[in-house]
Amino acid sequence: MARIESVDIFLVDLPPKTVRTDAVQSFERQETPIVRITDSDGAVGVGYSYTIGTGGSAVARLLDEHLAPMLPGREAEDIEGLWRDLMYRVHATTVGALTSIALAAIDTALWDLRARRAGLPLHRLAGGAKDRIALYTTESGWLHLPAQALVEGCQQARADGLRGAKLKVGRPHVSEDVARIAAVREAMGEGWEIMVDANQGFSLPEAIRRARAFEALDLAWLEEPIHADDVHAHRRLSESTRLPIAVGESLYSLSQFKDYLHSGACSVVQVDVGRIGGITPWLKVAHLAEAYNVPVCPHFLMEIHVALCCAVPNSRWLEYIPQLDLITESRLRIEDGHALPSQEPGLGIAWDWAAIERLTGSRSRHG
């Protein structure tokens, strides 16, 4: 084992590749905190997380002033112990998005370092359950797009080898959502998987109404229909509809997922490595979901989730939203509608450090 020698923190702003809108917001930009950890043997691990336009500077300050200074001199292999020590250092700000995003940037770097030192790709180091994961797109389903554009985007996605698409819902009247989904279903046929995402935009009565209106359209799931902290409302919704209910991108702790699963309030888990606090808690959530016979279909961050999906047996879908192309030299490999994890040691992400330096808004170093 080797001790941590230095920690570099970068905050990179990435513009979205396309206009992205949902029921409650627009995707302004991806603020990307990147953490590079070097150990005393000279081995390097790189991790990252994200925001969607706000809070990035707060995450960078949290990393710089409170978390990164704890790392130099510690054993890099003590990932579980480090995660817990870091979490308790900022315990007063947990459970919450900013703390989890900061923890995730460090934790993913430590796992990258561990995998590189072991000479193993992440999907094998973390479990090695499978060698590919089915892929669906969200890029063709944004809320501002007219029905014909949704159809054309799905047709292009199928031509590119993908197997399904997520459509944003939350138009002013339920009939508008139904018409948009129905246009895609009619054009794409029964074999094309359709997911829908409300981004927490509905009240419980409206969620029940829309879920029942969507049932005839054979959907894979209804995602985040109600505010994420209302487990009781999600349970009532789940009991009122045949649609699978998906949650997870706005949950920030293992305990929150436990409450949803134990209550029968969801039937798809969308745990996000960047919002749960890293790979360490992500794997715990995935295995917890497996105990409840619930599939894992993670939110966003496809470049790292492809490996995590292939590490666990109960993963079902990977979400295709490319967003690291400006700062990486690697690309997601796709075969027959599936994403394949990298076979390179580590996370499998080849960073373009010249581009990162060019796009970095702030940086700091410890050690």
TrEMBL record:
Entry keyword set: Magnesium, Metal-binding
Domain Mandelate racemase/muconate lactonizing enzyme C-terminal intervals: 147-244
Entry-linked Gene3D superfamilies: Enolase-like C-terminal domain, Enolase-like, N-terminal domain
InterPro entries, per database record: Enolase-like_C_sf (IPR036849), Enolase-like_N (IPR029017), Enolase_C-like (IPR029065), Mandel_Rmase/mucon_lact_enz_CS (IPR018110), Mandelate_racemase_C (IPR013342), Mandelate_racemase_N_dom (IPR013341), RHMD-like (IPR046945)
Biological process terms in GO annotation: amino acid catabolic process; carbohydrate catabolic process
Listed transmembrane segments: none
A single GO molecular function term of this UniProt record: hydro-lyase activity
Superkingdom in the source lineage: Bacteria
Pfam families found in the cross-reference section: MR_MLE_C, MR_MLE_N
Official protein name in the record: Mandelate racemase
Organism: Achromobacter pulmonis
